[in-house]
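Reading a protein record of the kind used here takes only a little practice. Think of the row as the fold of the chain written in a discrete alphabet. A record is reproduced here so that you can trace the correspondence yourselves:
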Amino acid sequence: MITFLIVLLAAAGLFFAYSLFRAGQISRTYEPDGHLAEVDGAQMHYHFVPASEAASEQPVLVFLHGASGNAYDMKLAFEGAFGGRYPLLFIDRPGLGFSQRSRTGQNTPESQARLITGLLEKLGIESAIVVGHSLGGAVTAAVGLAVPERVKGLVFLAPVSHVWPGGVNWYYTVAALPVIGWLFSRTLTIPVGERLVQQMLRHVFHPDPPVEGYADAVRVPLLFRPESFRSNAADICSLRQAVRQQSAHYGHLDQPTLIITGTKDAVVWPSIHCEGLLQDVPDAELLMLGAAGHMPQHTHTDEIVSGIDRLVARVVASGGKAKAVGTGAEPEPVPTA
């Protein structure tokens, strides 16, 4: 028994040392290349892509990524897809990518919405259409509820929005625990997680193959840094109770809304979330993508862009045109090495 404990402690020590080394290597390899803004004491990282001069008065499309991701996912899918027709804002959700978690330590969509709406205010964005993927869909709803005067339209892309049967994967539950989670994320997350990346991507992209070069393009290793993984786990573990409470207020989302889902999504059940939103949100339309999985932003981009174009037309017709972005605080450039 003593020998077993010695071996176990030695293995844990090796994993801890490797994880510490690799986390530092990841942080040195990937540096923020967008803009930084401080909101309520937390650093928010984002990329802003201006529209063409003729389209500068269009609503700003604000993109929120899902769980286990960062802004590079939505940026990869949509940065060049709209041809300069709208200003685009890609945000690292709090605790992921290069954005910091709220100082309150809360993980709910509502707490994330406070930082995101603070960023919109700081950037002077007075008319936005928020596009949220997966878990980012729940945050999209929270942003729409928080500042309806600023958010003129909503797009839910393969969203999580309602309570689902069952729980979450065990490793998220462990990683979110106060002490054990700290140890878990600093011993096993990096050596195990990085070796399961391709399996994870095959699952979320199914039935399509993963986009070639996706892991490098979206900087997947950023997720496995201990604090990022714990933030992601906390988001996921608190989500079910959060949407139970939040979904009771969806009737107040009276903005023009587009719900997009793939018929083959095996990660988030359209029958629960998309049908729930269609029932609860007053001015919602549903766009079904045949044979699409959970990542349609990469596999059915043109259809999604056309759907968003139609939604923008609805928003503009209802009076949701924007003032030029940048009427608030100027973004802080990211320091270069």
